[in-house]
Amino acid sequence: MAAHGTDNTEHIIRQYSDMVYRIALHNSRSAADAEDIMQDVFVELLTKCPCLDDPAHLKAWLIRVTVNKCRSLHRLAWRRKNVPLEDCAGLVQPEHAGVMEEVRQLPENMRVIIYLYYYEDYTIAEIAEILGKNQNTVSSTLRRARGKLRELLEEEDHNA
User: CA-to-CA distance for 20 and 13, rounded, in angstroms?
Assistant: First the structure.
C-alpha cells in the first residue's frame, strides 16, 4: 500500500474499524462474522489500494465494501440454513434495543438504508452515492422502511 504508507494505513484502520464493525455486525447479526468481514474489508483496502485521499470518499468506499461483503456472506448457501446465536444488545443503547430488534426484521435493502440514515447520520444523497443507487430509490426505500418499521412497532405495542 505504497500510496497510503504504513502509518497512514494504521491510522485509517484505527479511525474506521468501529464503524466497519458496527455495519458488519448490524448486517450479519454475528460478532464472529462481523470480525471476519471487518478483516476482509481492511485486507481489500491494503490490496486494492483505492488511493482515496479524501476522507469522505474513503469512508464511503469502506462502507460500500462492507455492505457488499455482508451481501456476499448472506448469499452463501450454508448461511441460509443457519440461525445466528449472537446477541448484540450490548452494543445498542438500552432505549434503542427494542427498535433495533424491529430494524433487524426488515429486508436487507431497507435495513442498510435505515442504519446508514439513522445510525451513521448520512443524507439520502450520500447513501445513494455509497450504495450506487438513485436518490429517489433510496428515498422511497427509506419511506417504505419507516412505514414497515412503524407497523412492526405498533404490532409489538399491541401484543404487549
Answer: 9
Instruction: Give the tens place of pLDDT for each residue, 11-48.
Output: 888 889 899 999 998 888 888 889 999 999 999 888 88
- What does the alpha-carbon distance between residue 2 and residue 118 come to, in Å, rounded to a whole number? 35
Rounded distance between C-alpha atoms, residue 15 and residue 62, angstroms: 11
Which residue carries 427498535 as its cell? 99
* Domain closes at, from 89, 119, 141: 89
Check if the beta carbon of residue 103 is closer than 8 Å to that of residue 149.
yes
Domain stop point among 34, 68, 89: 89
Looking at the structure, tell me whether residues 8 and 84 fall in a common domain: yes
Determine the Cα–Cα distance for residues 67 and 132; give it in Å rounded to an integer: 12
3-state secondary structure of 88: coil
The reply to whether 82 and 6 lie within a common domain is yes
